[in-house]
Design brief:
Shape: globular
Order of helices and strands: HEEHHHHEEEHHEEHHHHEEH
Organism: Pedobacter frigiditerrae
Family: Belongs to the glycosyl hydrolase 88 family.
GO molecular function: chondroitin hydrolase activity
Strand order of the largest sheet: 5-6-7
Distance between the termini: 42 Å
Pfam families: Glyco_hydro_88
Largest sheet: 3 strands, antiparallel
Strand content: 5-15%
Radius of gyration: 19 Å
Number of helices: 12
Helix content: 40-55%
Keywords: Hydrolase
Structural class: mainly alpha
CATH topology: Glycosyltransferase
CATH class: Mainly Alpha
Number of domains: 1
């Protein structure tokens, strides 16, 4: 008899959420200071916490909202509200492109689940702050205020913040936010992708949208395929199709999925190495979580590959839920997943838990649960 594949294994969402509750109750117990957001584990084994202006500050609150969404337990709603409001001041932050991560992950989920008008107003201001980073002379949202010798760098991660702008456009009626998101996505589509549909990490622009350089910051090399970056691309263009119904975005998302799923260096358990061009090195659970969540949504739009996307996402989640990647209760500084990589070239957060790995893992579990129950994903 042939061995069962990971796709045939059972994924018990209720069990995984119950486990996550136990871990995150531990996280709440050790994190009383609302100015210090859970991020990772330092090289000395201590908790690595970051301030609200750090790009990951919204993920913890967002994860708490996912626990509330599944359990309907008011304990999680109260905790989620507290950690969501702790990021409020970032609504006026115009120095970062990451306000989608920082604000939409916590406030967006909170508003979707509770319709609290406070969350809505904070997000609308935050979206306007993010929009200030779009310069029509360049045609893209500026990621960083300078990088190396370049003044206008744009990273593939930026695609993840457009969902926030689309929400704000629909909610406020400000079509400018919709239009600039489309322009950014179109220029990214044009300039960030290679012939095989892998993505560069950083594209550096000059006036009139001239591309000056195509580089990496967190990948192995300028020419390599940094795994989480491929996840950002797949997820981001799936959202673009959802929000615009323009099939060129669906086509791109499916081509990115084809690159990822057919790559000869993708391990059998479907958890990618931190860079697709670095086989045998560290795995990146965060990349797998992002890709799994993106594939689950993409499975709802694809005509030909729906089952492939769903089954691969299930395999990824089954692997992540295994003892290889999931920590024992009470360990791992109360993070859920082990074995993620932040930036290996900088020897930063290598083979450690990362708060956004947990966030996208929980998101993917909830998406998987809805799909298996034949319920529509709600955005």
């Amino acid at each position: 008899m042939a061995e069962p594949t990971l796709a045939q294994a059972q994924l018990n969402v209720a069990k995984e959420i119950k486990y996550a509750e136990a871990q995150y109750k531990g996280m709440l117990f050790t994190h009383k200071d609302l100015s210090k957001f859970p991020q990772s584990i330092s090289t000395d084994g201590n908790a690595r916490d970051m301030p609200s202006e750090w790009w990951c500050s919204g993920f913890f609150g967002g994860s708490l909202w996912y626990l509330y969404e599944y359990t309907k337990d008011d304990y999680w709603r109260k905790a989620a509200h507290k950690w969501t409001m702790a990021v409020e001041k970032e609504k006026a932050n115009t120095s970062t492109h990451d306000l989608g991560f920082m604000l939409y992950c916590p406030f967006g989920n909170g508003y979707r689940l509770t319709k609290n008008p406070i969350y809505k107003n904070i997000m609308l201001q935050g979206a306007q702050s993010l929009a200030t980073r779009f310069n029509p002379r360049y045609g893209v949202i500026k990621s960083w205020d300078g990088w190396k010798e370049y003044d206008y760098p744009v990273i593939i991660d930026n695609m993840m913040n457009l969902e926030f702008l689309f929400w704000a456009a629909k909610t406020s009626g400000d079509k400018k936010l919709y239009d600039l998101s489309v322009v950014h996505a179109d220029n990214t589509l044009r300039n960030h992708f290679r012939d095989d549909y892998s993505s560069y990490h950083v594209v550096c622009y000059g006036e009139a949208g001239k591309v000056l350089a195509k580089k990496t910051h967190q990948g192995l090399a300028d020419s390599s395929a940094w795994s989480r970056g491929q996840g950002w691309a797949l997820y981001g263009y799936t959202v673009m199709y959802r929000e615009t119904k323009n099939k060129k975005y669906l086509e791109l998302a499916e081509n990115v999925a084809k690159f990822v799923l057919n790559h000869p260096n993708l391990p059998k358990d479907k958890i990618p190495y931190w860079d697709f061009n670095a086989p045998g090195e560290e795995r990146d659970a965060s990349a797998a979580a992002v890709i799994a969540s993106g594939l689950l949504e993409l499975s709802q739009y694809s005509n030909l590959n729906s089952k492939l996307y769903f089954n691969t996402a299930k395999m990824m989640l089954t692997s992540l839920a295994s003892p290889t990647y999931k920590a024992k209760i009470g360990t791992n500084r109360s993070f859920i997943l082990k074995h993620s990589v932040g930036s290996k070239p900088h020897q930063s957060e290598v083979n450690v838990p990362l708060v956004y790995a947990d966030y996208y893992y929980l998101e993917a579990l909830l998406r998987y649960d809805l799909i298996t129950k034949k319920r529509k994903l709600v955005f």
